[in-house]
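[job 0412] stage=complex_fold ligand=heme C status=START
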Amino acid sequence: MTLALLCAPALAAAGEFFTLEGHGGPVKGIAVSESGAILTASFDNSVGYWMDGAPRWLEGHAAAVNAVSFLGETRAVSAGDDFALYLWDLDTGQGRRLGAHLGKVMSLAVSPDGQTVASASWDGSIGLWDVAGNTAPRFLKGHEAGVNAVAFTDDGARLYSGSADGTLRLWRVGDGTALGQIANNGFGINTLVLHEPGGWLAYGAVDGATRILSIADGTEIADLTLDRRPILGMAADPARRMLAVGDGEGYISLIDTASWRFIVDFHATLRGPIWALAVSPDGTNIHAGGLDDAMFSWPVDGAEAATRMVNGERPFLSGSEATSNGEAQFMRKCSICHTLEPDGRRRAGPSLHQLFGRVAGSLPGYGYSETLLKSDITWDAETIDALFDLGPEVYVAGTKMPMQRITGAQDRADLVEFLRHATQTE
Ligand code: HEC
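[job 0412] stage=complex_fold status=DONE, emitting structure tokens
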């Protein structure tokens, strides 16, 4: 375990919340390598390469970068609003322009053999690029609007694409033949995840559709659509045990792909959408990007444990009758980092068990920030309300708790009422 941590270019211990800061604009794309290194694509025209906490900036694009992928551990490919694709040598930071589309490039996929990059473009085509540069790029045409997402089959012979025209199509890579339409969602498809061994394909769309289809015959395996839209990002761990879905309202849902049930659902941005999502190779963290000039990485272990915490199964989505607003607030906004139990199971934040009347920073054994230790707050209905009315970064400037506000007074009141009971039990 220790060895794995040493070898991995980890930026923080697995299972901890961390932030990658340095971009001068929102984060639109995230990629992870097998070893856990991270690439971030940003509105600031650059790609960040994060190995040991410090970024290396890959500069070359003339506009926002929307997508980035690793090619092994030492090379990468990126594309964006300048229509261009760049190939990067991660050791030197040098970039080479592979070529360009006639419109923005929204996403990229690398063939399993690492030889070919597929690009989804708003010019309506899918580009196929020879990484070695020996053959000219090819463009697959047929979609009636911009292409947003592409995914290779495991043998690299075929490619799925999702488009703003609402359709999901299949192509033969070798000769570019269109093999047909797999599904028509009506509304534009933004993102795809393919898992051939499991026989499924997941897509997310503008209307909020989050559907799982059978690869064999295109029939629906599960419909996980919630009332939030659009779906902007999807990612899975390498084994595809867990699917993360990010939406325009800033929520991330984690779905167990064995049962197609929600594991947890949490609010992951202060404001705005989740544009970029990736899961760490060991499945312990979800990296997310949005309007903030930073990438946030959320611990998943906490999320999994959280499901077992309240009223047995499916705590947060058990239906509005069964789940009070206060409980829903807690599950979505706090449970990923806090338990309500005395056992002190490790999370990013301290257990909130017996919170009312606690002097801030006084739970034994938890490593608080200096700021919280020095504050003279005692937690009660009023101070908890203030914490999320103003936001932790304002109320206790310098705290380790990430910025987060709950703007609705009733939501805060409901949360406080829920906590008052739930932190007393056991
Ligand atoms: C991403 C993780 C994260 C989320 C989400 C989060 N917290 Fe925290 N919380 C922390 C951390 C870390 C600390 C410790 C802060 C410090 O030491 O400065 C903390 C501290 C606290 C404290 C002070 C506890 C003490 O012992 O003094 C309270 C109260 C609290 N959080 C409540 C909440 C509530 C309620 C929510 C949901 C609305 C929430 N937190 C969401 C990470 C989080």
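The helical segments are 2-7, 300-307, 325-333, 370-374, 381-390, 392-395, 409-422.
[job 0412] exit 0
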